Amino acid sequence: MSLPDSRSPGKHSSPGLQSCSVVQLNVGGHVFTTSLSTLRKHPDSQLAFMFSSGQQPKLPTDAKGRYFIDRDGTHFGAILQFLRTQRLPTESVLEVYQEALHYDVRTLVKQLQDSAQLFGETVGRQQFISRVPNYLENLEVLVRVARAEAIAARHSAVIVCVLRTEEDLGRYDHAVNNLEEQEVVRFGPWKAPPTAIDLLDCIKMDVEARGYKVRYEPHSSDRGFLFKTNDGFLYKLIFTWW
């Protein structure tokens, strides 16, 4: 949910903040106590805008009069910690980064982008994924197929075809024709150094980020034939449900 814009009309029940330096916040059920000076530390941030000097915040309040922000507050403490001490988080860095973007704390956004954790994710992995055609769409198909196969089963297996190069396209139809009408989710080809295993690791990471438990292995037919080249081809992604 978007943060309320203090320039838009709205109801509030708390007195003005000019005479009070301590602010209590309820962020999605997580309660925080901080100061106005902390919230205003970065004047160009959304938090500073919400609690602008000389203005009454147009935020709702909870039953105890605390200003309420209707957003998950799990990582809001890390935002406050940075505003207070300039200390960067060491855990849940990607999640804190998303919160910093939301609250428009630009100094924190920039420092997190330069951190080792996010540099590898944004400059390395995400840039690679962007070069894999229809990656996100195929990820959705993959999960949908796995869920459809989960009825009365502990595991779901989805066949994934990884086409590393344009040359692999020529072998795609032949391999798929031997799968006896099994649905196949295709990824690639792409023009970037990472291998098929690198792509499978990306798929695994992104599926597990949605809360699923998954592993992958090379796919073989019932006759024992392994559909595999030196750099991938057909793999089986196995979801475990319980």
TrEMBL record:
Domain of life: Eukaryota
Domain BTB: start-end pairs: 21-120
Gene3D superfamilies listed in its UniProt record: Potassium Channel Kv1.1, Chain A
Xref: SMART domains: BTB (SM00225)
InterPro entries listed in its UniProt record: BTB/POZ_dom, KCTD7/14_C, SKP1/BTB/POZ_sf, T1-type_BTB
GO biological process: protein homooligomerization
Protein name: BTB/POZ domain-containing protein KCTD14
Lineage of origin: Eukaryota, Metazoa, Chordata, Craniata, Vertebrata
Gene: kctd14
